[in-house]
Design brief:
The protein is built from seven helices and no strands. The protein is an all-alpha fold.
Amino acid sequence: MLVVPIRVSKDGQFPNKSTSECDGYLVQQCLQGDTHSYGQLYRRHQQRVRSILYQLCEPSSLDDLVQEVFLRAWKGLPKFRQTAKFSTWLYRIAWNLATDQRQASVQRRNQLQSLTEKSSTQQQALDLMDLHYQDLVQRGLANLSFDHRTILVLHDLEEVPQKEVAEILDIPLGTVKSRLFHARAGMRQFLQQQGVQL
């Protein structure tokens, strides 16, 4: 395709040319690597893109969305069929992005609402259950010997590795494993006696 240069005024306007003709010329220049021409396309259309997005999206993300539209357009420019107007294609990108944003926003809102509803009802039940189980664990620990209780607290509750427990208590690793086995068995027996199914 032969590209005929079009005279551009200092303010970036094309005298005596339709918008689509001017856009077509700028697109051709962009495809030849002229980023300055893309800047002109941006200046020509960014206010309209912003207006479209403003009507469809949250204002807090407006600047990012405008940038995203023009980034997608830049990346997609080689695929742009010049049988359509550049502005139509660009506004379609804006609309698609706005649709994606709205769907994502609705989905986030629904998830948040669902989590909030679940957590508020579950939290009340969990608070009571936590208190019940905390009390059972404390009573179960109190039933263990001091040595067994120490091993169980360090390893299972504080998640200290067995080797480190052995170093802390200055006992052999085999003793840690043996005491841990017996401590767990004692705790299991106590909890089962209290009606907890394990």
